[in-house]
Amino acid sequence: MIDHLDIRIKPDTSELDGQRHPSLYFTDGDIVISATSRAKSYTELYRVDRIFLARHSPVFKDMFSLGKGRDDEQYDGAPRVHLPEDAEDVAALLGALYHTSNLPLTRYSPDTPQKVQGIMRLAVKYDVESIRTTIMKHIEGEWPHTLADWEKLQNERAKLYLSASPPPTRLYDHFPEPASAIAFAMEFHCPSILPAAFYELAAAPTGDPSIHWGFLHHTDLLRLIAGKSALVAQWMPTVGNIERNASSGYFCSNRFHQGCFCRKIAANCIIDTLQDADDNDPSTPRVADPLSYLRHFDVAKNRQSAGFSCDKTVEGISNSIKSEAQRIWDQLPEYFPYTISS
Length: 342
Hints:
alpha/beta; 5 strands
């Protein structure tokens, strides 16, 4: 329901205060829309085409139909409609309708959820589906939806650490920021990004100043704490599963490997390696980041130094690690359960 639409019978107000937008005041437009900037305390005017707006928004279409045939408030010889929203957001929405490229959608920009928040609210309120869909697809595309997507993102981060000197200490100056993404998803019904965003926040380097904690609702903070505890609690069972698989007879088919010698060495190697990480370095695995622990364990690379060389054992352990990583990824919605109210 649209409220506060100021469509009243008034004389021409061309002489009243108000500044014309430099690129959204078309002389051949047939309606003037005005909005007030709350931060800068001025009224901005946009002269646009009713048919164009009505084509993109059924709400605008109904609004213009209701005013048809009335001597509405006039400005510069055209009907004038005042919208209650902030002028910056109104200008952004109108600009995006005329040129979609005007939307502030930059790949991996941490500020995108904040920049599009006002536009998204207007797109939802006035039912501008084209803008809403474009923004939603971009936000969803910024976050991994599969374990393979997550691994690709980790590879891109690794490149950043390798190329930067010194390595960045504010990770989310360069990649999507999870707290603001969670707030966006909760407000605009975008649940598909929540498992990855909550996991990202749980695994984030302690004290990273680039995380926008203030955007999170207290219920989301509680959800984060509970999910992080669940991740920590399931880590040792995960390592135990891999260790048991490594030392079982399933993997080694070499008849010369009597007594499971290579498998026992492999199991010990797994325990030593998976529990060895520098928690102070944000580029290495952390206790609450089991996927990174598993990702950093390269069986083939470590087998010679560990003292086992059985290809069957290497293959079996690698498959077991992948299986455990997939299990953790699939259970993220259970670790971070969420409900988005309609």
